[in-house]
Structures are given as C-alpha cells and as structure tokens.
C-alpha cells in the first residue's frame, strides 16, 4: 500500500477558503471513515491521508481518538513532532465527554485529548434522553454537567471545542428541549459549534431541514451537520442542513464510515461549490478532487467506485447513442458540469447502444475525423451492434474498437491493409505429469517476409501462447519489446450447455518502456477460450505497433 502522498505545490497550500472560518469543511475520514468495516489505517497511512486532505483544502482534519487506540495516540504524537506538515488545515482530536461522576481533569480519556496537542477537540455527547438514560445510564442533569465541565476544561486549556450531539434528530423528536439544553451547556462553556448528528442515518432531507432551521432560530448557535448514510440521504441531508443555516459540514472521503457510511466529502464539496456557489475551498482546489479521492481509496485499500458522483471514472461516461448525439452538439446538454472543473474527464462508450454520433465522438478521441464519411460511420455502428449481439464488448476494449475503426477507414479510403504478421497455425498442449500441470504452445507465423516457428512453455495455455507469439515476433518487430500482458479476464456468456458457451476474453496490456507506461485493453470472442484469447492477444500487439499498421488475421 502506498504511504507517501504525491508531491504537491506546497506554496499554494497556505491559501484559505475565501469564506475563512465562516464556513467549516470538516473531514472525518480518519475517525468516522476508519469505522468502516474493512478499513485499517496504519499511522503512516493516516499521515499520508491527512496530507492529501490538506492539499484538497479542507479546513479541519479529524485524525482519530487519542487515548482510545494506541495507533491514534501515536498518530497525534507523530503529527505534533512535525511528521505531518499541514498547509491550511487544522488537526482535530475526537473524544467523548468525561465519565459520569468523574472530574474532567481526572478523566484519562479527556487528558489524552489534551496530550494529543491537537489545537481543536471534537467532543461527542449524548443529546437524546433515551441514550442518556439507557446507554450512558446516568441522569439528564449529570449528562449536562459532563458536557459543560468537559468543554470548559478544554477551553480553559486553550483548545477550540466543537460538540458532536449524537442522535440529535431522534432526540429532538423524543424531547426537543433536552437536545437544546445540551447544546446550550456546551456553548455556555465555550464550545464554538454545535454539530447535529444524524447518528443512525434515518433522516430525510425535508424533515432534517425543518429541524435545523428551527434550532437555528431558537438558539442562534453556530450549527454543524454530521450525517450517516443509512437511507442513502447523507449528502442530500448535509446540503439541506446548509440550506437551513448550518455552516460546518462533517464528511468523509468517498463516504467511508460506520455501516452504510457518511456524507461523501467529494459530493458535498461539488454541490456546495458548483451548485450552491459557496466558495468553501481555496481557489483552484476543486480540480484536485479526482486525484485526492483515488489516492485516498488507495490508502484505504478499497477500489475506487467508478460510479461515484463527481469523481468516479464513469461519472461523465455516456453510453446511450441519444446522449452522444446531443453531446456532439454541445457537451453541456448531457453533463451537469464541465468534468474538468472537478478534475474528471468525459468518455464516450462504444457498445450496442451506440449510434453514429457515439462513433464520431469516439473517433475524435483517437484523433480520427469521420466527418464526411457517413458510410464508414454507419458500417462501424452496424458492425459493433452485430458483434455485441454475438458477445463482443467494446466499452472496456477501446483498443480493439480503434483497430476496427482504422480498418474500416482504410478500406473506405482504398488503402492497402498491411498486416504486421499473419498466422499460419498455432497449437496448444496442456499436459499433466504427476501433480504438475504444464502448458506448451507452438505458433507458426509469417513476419518480415519470413516463416517463423516458435515453441514456449507457460503456467497456462494463454501464457504459453503469448510467450510463443512474442518470441516469434521479437526479431522483426522490436517495438513490441516492453509490451506486457497485465490483466486477463474471461467471461462465459449465455451458455446453457457448458462447453457450447461463448467465451469473451479481455486482455489489458501495458507498454512498460514507453513514456507514461500507457495501458490498453482488447477483446476476443469465440466458443473456444484459447481462440478468444488469441484474438485479444493479437489485437493487443497490433495496437502496440501503432496506427501505421493494420489488423492481422
Ligand atoms: C457515534 C460515534 O460513532 S462516536 C465514535 C465511536 N467510536 C468508537 O467507539 C471507537 C473507539 N472506541 C474505543 O476504543 C472504546 O469504545 C473506548 C476506548 C472509547 C471505550 O472503551 P471501554 O472503556 O472499554 O468502554 P465501552 O466501549 O465498552 O463502552 C463505552 C463507554 O463510554 C460511555 N460513553 C458513551 N458515550 C459517552 C459520552 N458521550 N460521554 C461519556 N461517556 C460515554 C458508555 O456509557 C460506556 O461507559 P461504561 O464503560 O461505563 O459502560
Ligand atoms: C459523532 C458521530 O460520528 C455520529 O453521531 O454519528
């Protein structure tokens, strides 16, 4: 796992959001985000993640709960020792109010918050009578004292304090005055922000908006919002709270968090900045969203969600032909914003749903202008539809589609198609000897005017075939040096009868010696998995040789 953050222009990091302290973007990826099943950050991961969040320009980074977990205690110690260099963000320690019947200064957990040396502390407090009585098992009055005492103690020690009111909305429904008394106890003792938490994530946007607006009106306190995503409404609820007067939003990167997760930082930022026009990030930070989201996914060891709003790789991908035909006129007709604003790209997907406009736009991505060639476009559309019906899939195999397009274009222009090599035959043997299973492949190809025969072994039939083919081509096609197969996926399609099924193979390749190590994917389809693999392998190598050559047989 990567533990070092990519380099960034540190001089820019001192820029604050134009709204300054008037609006807080508070990230809790390293505290609530770490409560997601499957995430375990090392201290080094946390330092790298905090650096990335700082680069994005969030105002506050909640780093964890010092005193509760040795790793979190160590994180704050190493941060204080200078290992974490933040530009504009401030580090926040999380913890709970003192225990019932214990003085704040004697409570070890509260002491650990001070020892963390974080300038800001978020205290979690019970604000629902049922939680005070049944979970905390103390009196309502003692809970108010726990809040007031702990805040006052930390403020007297020079800390800025935010209060997370757990289960605020359910509590408000059960006994609204009690939640307000908790908020009042905190503010009277010196807390800056009362954060209303939808802890079990059960709120709906309109109901939540109503409560936030009422609390704002009744108290005038600075309000924050913390939404869990159990009903899939965390982002909508966060935005509703801001529209009702909250000026502090707590979110996690990619929505990581306990159970169904939290409000996704990137969706909230996109909505606040782009849709509501609130400049809550320093200027020019929004295009960092995709990079930071993906780097944080890497640190969490979770594959990025391709369909995530704003930052997913498919967030601006268009598959339907009707969409492409409008996009050809103006991308704004089907994009809710220019993807570059958030550091993303638009993609046109070629599938059975493609129309002529899809093909023309995709061709442009390859640098090919098909304007004035309507018959080529129509032929490609028809070919794609027919092939996809037979099991091909071009949306994940741009390279095979580009080869198809170039072949059709060359044929329409009457250009001679010169295949870089042609196959005479191949043979693959799978042999079990004792417990060992070995594969051997022989290929006979014609390349550079010669007939070349090569045999290779491999850990599987495709690996053997790949090795034999590369070996046969190596002397004549040195440009293939450094081209490597990096992924191989097989899918059995619509088979009712086992071996009669059609097999689709996707091969991902990379050119390790070329600048930027480009990657591409090719596809093959056949009832025989080896032949399907051969087709995808051949496309991969022909694609690697560049546009001056045409497809092989
Ligand atoms: C809504 C949220 O997500 S808040 C964040 C929650 N995060 C975590 O819990 C992760 C870290 N937690 C831990 O490591 C442990 O739970 C610890 C160290 C905090 C506490 O561990 P333990 O002392 O073994 O207690 P345990 O976890 O069983 O119970 C929590 C205790 O805190 C008390 N407590 C709960 N909320 C509060 C509060 N706001 N103020 C004071 N005490 C509280 C509970 O009543 C319980 O007290 P008890 O031990 O007297 O019964
Ligand atoms: C504080 C917190 O994480 C919650 O109430 O959900």
TrEMBL record:
A GO MF term: 2-isopropylmalate synthase activity
Instruction: Give any Pfam family that matches.
Output: LeuA_dimer
Q: In which pathway does it act?
A: Amino-acid biosynthesis; L-isoleucine biosynthesis; 2-oxobutanoate from pyruvate: step 1/3
- Give the catalytic activity: pyruvate + acetyl-CoA + H2O = (3R)-citramalate + CoA + H(+)
Q: Check the UniProt entry and state the signal peptide residues, or none.
A: none
Query: Which keywords does this Swiss-Prot/TrEMBL entry list?
Result: Amino-acid biosynthesis, Branched-chain amino acid biosynthesis, Isoleucine biosynthesis, Transferase
Q: Which GO terms describe its biological process?
A: isoleucine biosynthetic process; L-leucine biosynthetic process
SMART domains xrefs: LeuA_dimer
EC number(s) for this protein?
2.3.3.21
Domain named Pyruvate carboxyltransferase is located at 23-290
The main enzyme category here is transferase
Q: Which family does it belong to?
A: Belongs to the alpha-IPM synthase/homocitrate synthase family.
Q: What is the name listed in the Swiss-Prot or TrEMBL entry for this protein?
A: Citramalate synthase
- Species annotation: Nakamurella panacisegetis
């Amino acid at each position: 796992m990567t533990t070092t953050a990519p380099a960034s222009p540190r001089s820019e990091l001192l820029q604050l959001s134009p709204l300054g302290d008037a609006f807080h973007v508070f990230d809790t990826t390293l505290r609530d985000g770490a409560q997601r099943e499957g995430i375990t950050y090392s201290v080094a991961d946390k330092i790298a993640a905090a650096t990335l969040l700082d680069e994005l320009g969030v105002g506050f980074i909640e780093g964890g709960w010092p005193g509760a977990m040795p790793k979190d205690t160590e994180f704050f110690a190493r941060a204080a020792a200078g290992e974490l260099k933040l530009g504009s963000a401030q580090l926040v320690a999380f913890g709970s109010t003192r225990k019932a019947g214990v003085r704040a200064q004697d409570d070890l957990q509260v002491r650990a918050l001070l020892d963390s040396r974080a300038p800001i502390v978020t205290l979690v407090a019970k604000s629902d009578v049922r939680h005070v009585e049944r979970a905390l098992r103390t009196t309502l009055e003692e809970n108010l004292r726990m809040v007031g005492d702990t805040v006052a103690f930390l403020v007297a020690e020079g800390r800025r304090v935010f209060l997370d009111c757990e289960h605020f909305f359910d509590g408000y429904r059960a006994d609204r005055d009690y939640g307000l008394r908790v908020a009042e106890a905190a503010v009277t003792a010196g807390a800056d922000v009362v954060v209303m938490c939808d802890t079990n994530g059960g709120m709906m946007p309109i109901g939540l908006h109503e409560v936030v607006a009422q609390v704002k009106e009744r108290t005038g306190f600075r309000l924050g919002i913390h939404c869990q995503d159990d009903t899939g409404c965390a982002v909508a609820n966060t935005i509703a709270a801001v529209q009702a007067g909250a000026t502090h939003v707590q979110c996690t990167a990619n929505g990581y968090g306990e159970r169904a997760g939290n409000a996704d930082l990137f969706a909230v930022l996109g909505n606040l900045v782009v849709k509501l026009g609130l400049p809550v990030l320093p200027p020019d930070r929004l295009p960092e969203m995709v990079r930071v989201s993906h780097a944080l996914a890497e640190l969490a060891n979770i594959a990025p969600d391709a369909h995530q709003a704003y930052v997913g790789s498919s967030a601006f991908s268009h598959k339907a032909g009707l969409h492409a035909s409008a996009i050809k006129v103006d991308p704004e007709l089907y994009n809710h914003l220019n993807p570059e604003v958030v550091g993303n790209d638009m993609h046109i997907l070629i599938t059975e749903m493609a129309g002529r406009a899809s093909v023309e736009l995709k061709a442009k991505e390859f640098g090919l202008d098909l304007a004035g060639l309507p018959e080529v476009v129509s032929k490609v559309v028809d070919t794609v539809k027919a092939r996809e019906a037979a099991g091909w899939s071009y949306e994940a195999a741009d390279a095979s589609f580009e080869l198809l397009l170039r072949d059709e274009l060359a044929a329409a222009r009457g250009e001679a198609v010169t295949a870089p090599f042609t196959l005479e035959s191949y043979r693959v043997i799978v042999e079990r000897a004792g417990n060992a299973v070995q594969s051997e492949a022989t290929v006979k190809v014609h390349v550079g005017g010669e007939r070349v025969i090569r045999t290779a072994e491999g850990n599987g039939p495709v690996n053997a075939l790949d090795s034999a083919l590369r070996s046969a081509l190596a002397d004549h096609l040195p440009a293939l040096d450094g081209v490597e197969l990096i992924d191989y996926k097989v899918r059995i399609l619509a088979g009712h009868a086992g071996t009669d099924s059609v097999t689709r193979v996707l091969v991902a390749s990379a050119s390790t010696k070329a600048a930027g190590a480009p990657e591409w994917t090719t596809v093959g389809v056949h009832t025989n998995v080896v032949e399907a693999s051969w087709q995808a392998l051949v496309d991969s190598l022909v694609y690697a040789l560049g546009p001056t050559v045409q497809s092989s047989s």
